[in-house]
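fyi for ur records
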Amino acid sequence: MLRAFFRTEVGSTTVLLAATLLGLLWANSPWAETYDAFWHIQAGLAFGDTTFELDLRHWVNDGLMAVFFFVIGLEISREVTVGQLRDRRLIAVPAVAALGGMILPALLYFAINAGGPGEAGWGIPIATDTAFVLGLLAVVGARCPDPLRAFLLTLAIVDDVLAILVIAVFYTADLSVVALLVAVALFALILLLRRLRIWRPPAYVLLGFALWVATLESGVHPTLVGIALGALVFVYAPSEHKLRLAGEAVQELAGDPSPRLAREAALRVKRSVSINERLQLMLHPWSSYVIVPIFALANAGVRLDAESLRQAATSPISLGIVAGLVLGKLVGISLGTWLPLRMNWGLLPGNLVWGQMLGGAAVSGIGFTVALFVTDLAFDDPVVQSQAKIGIIAGSLVAAGLGWLIFKLAWNQGGVCAPPGLEPDEPLPDTLAVPVHAGDHSRGPEDAAVTLVEYGDFECPYCGRLYEILERLRERRPDVRMVFRHFPLREMHPRSLPAALAAEAAGEAGRFWEMHDVLYRNQDRLGDAELERYAADLGVRPWIGRDEHLRRIEEDESSGLDSGVRGTPTLFVNGARYTGPLTLEALTRALRDSTPMP
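which gave:
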C-alpha cells in the first residue's frame, strides 16, 4: 500500500509543479488581471428562491479541497486500523517529530511577527506538503531508503491531522450556532447509519454534502468534514473467508461463464477488499492529479516583480515563514525525533542514520498546499497575501535545497546498512570463512594476486555508492579479481531479495554481471515489473529456478555470517576484512598493500 501511495504522490508532483508554475506565469503575464478576475467568478446552486453561491476560488478551496482531506481521512483510518500506525512504538517517534515540526515553526513565526499585521499567519509554516516531499525524495533516489519514506509518510499523516485541527479551531470565522448544531445533527445521523450498517452510497453522498454546507455556513472550515467522514469509512484486512468465497466464485465462472456468475464473482472479489481501500484507489488519483493541481493553480499566482520581491525581502511575514519552514522544521523534527528515542518511547523503522533523518527533517520544510490554504484564511489583504506566498515559495525552495545538500553530504560520508540488534562491541571474525571458489560470481583474472570480495545488497544505498567506486577501481586496477556475494538485508530493504533472485537468474544464463550493473544503476526502481523488464532486455527469465537460486543466496548469507558480516557493504581483501574508508584512494592503497593469499 505504501509503495502504491509513493508512486501516486511522486507522479503527481510533476503535475502539481506544472500547475504552480502555470499559476505564477499567468499572474506575471500581460494578462495578469484576468487571473484574479477568473477565480472571482461567482458560481452556485439555486433551489427556488434560495441560492448558494461562492466564487471559483472558494469552490476550489472549500469544496474540492474537502475531497482532498477526505482522502487523507481514508488514509489515516487505514493506517490506524490495519497499517503501520497500529504499532504504538512506531507511531510515537514520528508523532512527536510532527508535533515538534509544528510547534517550533509556529513559535519562530510568532516571535518575528508578534504584535504586527502578520500575527495571524502563525499557522502558515506548520504543515508539510507530502506530494512535493515525496517527489524530492524520488530525485534523491537510493540515498533515501524506504524506511525513511515510511517514517516521513507517517509524520505527514500526523502533521495533516494536527494542521486540520489548527485550521478548525484557530481559523474559524464568525460562528453560527444554529448552522453548527445542524452540522452536528447531520454528523450524528451519519454515525447512526454507520452503526446500523446501512450501506447506501446516495444517502451518504447527500448527507455528506448537506453536512459540508452546514459546516461552511457555521463558520468552521469544511475541510474538517472531509477528514472526519474519511476516518469513518470502514476498513479491514482481507479475511480468509471472503478471499475463499471470491476464489470459489472465480473458479465457478471459469467453469461456466455466464452474466450471473460474472456479476457474482465481481461482487465477491470487490467485497474481499474494504470500501476504504476501494475508495482510496478510486479517489487518490483524482485528488493528486486534479484537485491539488487546480488548488495550486488557483492560489499560487503571485506577482514577482521588483517591488513585490523588495517588500517581501524585508517583510516580517515572509521572513517568519522562511524561518519557520527552513529552521523551525529542521530543528523541531530533529528534536522531536531525538526525544522519544532518548526516552525509549518508540522505534524507528529500519535502521536509519542521523544523516538520513536530518535530510528528511529538512525536506519536510517544503510547505505548499496547506500553507497556501492557511494564507487564504489568515489574511484578507492581497498585499499581505502576496508577501506570505512569496515566503512560502522561497522557504520551500531553500528547504528542498538544504535537504538535498544534507542527503548528499551524508551519502558521501559512506557507511554501512546494518539491521538492528547488533551490539557495537560484538567481536567479529576478521578473515573470510569460506574461501573464494568456482561457484562465486567473479570478474577479473582467476590467477590475480589480489582478490576483493564484497558482501552486498542491491537496495543498500551505501552499496550503490561503492559500486561507482569499484567501477573506477576496476579501470585503475584491471589485474584485481572482484567477487560478489549476496547479503540481502530483507527487513530493511524489501526489494533486495527479489533483485538478488533476478541476478541469479541472469547468472544462470551467463549474464550475472550485466544484471548486477543494471540493478545498481537503478536502485530506486526494483519493483517486479522493472526486474522483469531488465531480465527481458538481457534475454533471460527473472524467476526461473527460484528455489535453486534462493539456496544459492542463502549459502552466501551463511558464509557472510560465519565471516562476521553484519551489514552491507562488507569487504575482504585477500581474505582479510577491510575496515578502512569506502573511498577510491583508500581502497587503492589497501589493494596495493595487501598481503598475498597463501
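Strands lie at 42-47, 50-55, 441-443, 451-456, 481-486, 570-573, 576-577. thats all i got for now
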